[in-house]
User: What shape does this take?
Amino acid sequence: MAATGLSASGNGAAIAGGHSALMTTCTDAGCFTRAGAANGAVTGAGLALEQARLQAAAAQLDQVRASRARIVEACDAERRRLERDLHDGAQQRLVTLSLMLGRARHRAAGADPELAALIDSASQEAAEALTELRDLARGIHPAVLTQTGLRGAIQALAERCAVAAAVTAVPDGRFPATIEGTAYFVVSEALANVAKHSLADSSQVTIRQVHGWLVVQVSDDGSGGARPAGSGLRGLADRVASVGGVLRIDSPPGSGTRLEAYLPCT
Ligand SMILES: Nc1ncnc2c1ncn2[C@@H]1O[C@H](COP(=O)(O)OP(=O)(O)O)[C@@H](O)[C@H]1O
Ligand SMILES: [Mg+2]
Assistant: This one.
């Protein structure tokens, strides 16, 4: 592709040079007629080259888009694998450890109060480690999203949000894993922002399927003034663009924030 682009612009430069040479060396009327015809031919050639250059650029853009989508898809697959490994490995071991500690605590109860207290704090530690690991796994890739799709995963996000978040609509159907993942991370970051920055009383999450697009909206009635150049929102815009979507942020100071992502889903 790069080679096509280079050769087209190289020819273009050569013809532009030939055109100016014709105009300066011919003086008689016949020569002007010939120059006019040649001029038309050269203009036609110039247009054809410009068209070829644009086609090459468009093809190159398509290739970049496709490779970006492949990278995101590969990252998502890796995240799903990591989440599965954590779930089937470390998380299961911690669950078993908690059960064993529970049994030990039971045996130590009457016999050795100090040992029982020690086992209690070990149990507490194991429970906290399990919670942290579950949160970590959810951040990598939420199992509930893979298993049940957007509805359950978005509902779980809303329930965990420190500001009241109403989920007004989420389609029941399943979508490509990358699109579901992107929709999930849009809502996750948007609600995290509502909780961290907005000072809002309430927020609303709506996801609708409209003419081949999944339209994800998160709004709040807080302070507004979200900065699209912030690392979280910029990362979100990149992720949305990588699947061929568009992210819009409407956040006038004092009038709340509305974040909308349009994700292709056909
Ligand atoms: N819903 C919101 N309400 C008010 N301000 C917001 C909201 N979302 C983001 N912001 C502002 O925009 C900035 C950029 O957001 P973001 O890129 O997510 O970065 P951060 O890592 O700080 O969350 C935030 O630091 C905050 O000042
Ligand atoms: Mg943020």
Summary: The chain has three domains: 2-69, 79-140, 148-264. Residues 79-140 form one domain. The first helix runs from residue 2 to 25. The mean pLDDT is 85.
